[in-house]
Amino acid sequence: MIDFEAQRRRMVERYRAQGYIKSEEMARAMLAVPREEFMDPSYIQYAYYDQPFPIPGDGRQTISAPYMYPIFYEALEIRKGEKVLEIGAGSGYGAALARELVGPTGKVVSVEINKVTYEFARSNLQRTGYTDVILVLGDGSLGYEPEAPYDKICVTASCPEVPPPLIEQLKAPGRLIAPVGPPSSLWGQDLVLISKDEEGKIKRRTIMQVVYVPLQGRYGWVRR
Fold first, then answer.
1. pLDDT value at position 187?
2. What's this model's pTM, rounded to 2 decimal places?
3. Mapped to the 3 state alphabet, what secondary structure does 132-163 carry?
């Protein structure tokens, strides 16, 4: 039998040493969420490998490599009590981590465009007790207006440019992170962090290069 709990502890220790995990809050969140419960059963033994794996969908969807979550969430500086919007629910693992970070007074909304992937995420979140995550089947490139505005927005697929509705639905102040660039690029995409100040002014900087599947929807690479 695989000792997933021990693997989870080693993963957190490794990511602390490598600088991916910078805060105690992120470490606690990654220790709390059982990543194995969000894997396709065919790949469950690889839950704590540092690479992405396929999940149910249309052949494009993956659960990202585990170190990508602290890269995104540490940059966003997610805090207790905040409202977070995730574009691309995938397996539900990212939403579960965000739920741990915002705590009982916060809220997480996650939008998934593929129905098969949506059902996979919904099942995983329900089974692991994250029943208060608001999971929406729809076009994430349009955001989710009923719960706007959001303190933090995380986009988990590559965009031609950051969708305007997401910038509109971001609070002032607020932060948004998204991979921007062609999905077929040899060098991957720019991981872009957008900060909106109290007056609504936007600042943008690139953190690193990443490789993500293409965003689907009105403002994505794959129009639907």
1. 80
2. 0.96
3. CCEEEECCHHHCCHHHCCEEEEEECCEECCCC
